[in-house]
């Protein structure tokens, strides 16, 4: 079984990103186990904090990331980029220099928005950062969910087309993780 970290860029309690992530986990193959990793409690990265008393939340976060086979990101788009909390998590996990917890993990991203552009910009900004962090990102299928308010029925369940898409994406990601993390 492959261990997958789930990072959710939106910190909002009723986040659509969180709802999509929860549904993704339910639809994913049994060959993957998931842990949602909290990013909202990480102090902003400051290299001065690496000297002496490193924040315990940084140490715990880095350890969790190091022990994973893969990571999947669910992110909204803020100002044509990723949310600050998600960028901070990337920075915290990549330090100290030369000791990145991210290196070699299989990765994927699903970007989610209430608008029609599906957080396209955030998806590609995140992919660009992951190249620098040596995280091979799944190329196909790409994960974009626009107009997210329309992918849930009146009872809060995923509509059939979105459930099918997430199932296919999860199956492809499982293959990707097994390919990358021998």
Describe the protein.
- There is one protein chain.
- By secondary structure, this protein is an alpha/beta fold.
- It is built from five helices and five strands.
- It has one domain: 3-Layer(aba) Sandwich (Rossmann fold).
- Helix content is 37%, strand content 15%.
- A five-stranded parallel β-sheet has the order 2-1-3-4-5, with helices on both faces.
- The N and C termini lie close together (11 Å).
- The model has no long low-confidence stretch (mean pLDDT 95).
List keywords for this structure.
5 helices; 37% helix; alpha/beta; 5 strands; 182 residues; five-stranded parallel beta sheet; Rossmann fold
Write a compact overview of the structure shown.
By secondary structure, the chain is of the alpha/beta class.
- Which CATH C-level class is it? Alpha Beta
Task: Return the string of H and E elements.
Answer: EHEHEHEHEH
* Structural class category: alpha/beta
* Individual helix count: 5
Please state the second-level CATH architecture. Answer: 3-Layer(aba) Sandwich
CATH topology: Rossmann fold
Number of strands: 5
Strand order of the largest sheet: 2-1-3-4-5
């Amino acid at each position: 079984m492959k261990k997958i970290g789930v990072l959710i860029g939106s910190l909002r309690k009723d986040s659509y990103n969180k709802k999509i992530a929860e549904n993704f986990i339910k639809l994913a193959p049994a060959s993957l186990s998931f842990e949602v990793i909290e990013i909202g409690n990480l102090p902003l990265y400051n290299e001065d904090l690496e000297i002496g008393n490193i924040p315990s939340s940084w140490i715990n976060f880095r350890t969790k990331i190091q022990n994973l086979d893969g990571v999947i990101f669910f992110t909204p788009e803020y100002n044509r980029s990723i949310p600050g909390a998600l960028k901070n998590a990337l920075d915290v996990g990549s330090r100290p220099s030369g000791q990145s917890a991210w290196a070699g993990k299989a990765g994927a991203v699903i970007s989610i928005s209430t608008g029609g552009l599906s957080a396209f910009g955030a998806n590609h900004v995140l992919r660009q950062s992951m190249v620098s962090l040596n995280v091979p990102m799944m190329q196909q299928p790409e994960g974009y969910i626009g107009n997210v308010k329309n992918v849930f029925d009146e009872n809060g369940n995923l509509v059939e087309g979105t459930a099918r898409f997430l199932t296919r994406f999860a199956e492809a990601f499982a293959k990707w993780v097994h390919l990358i993390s021998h």
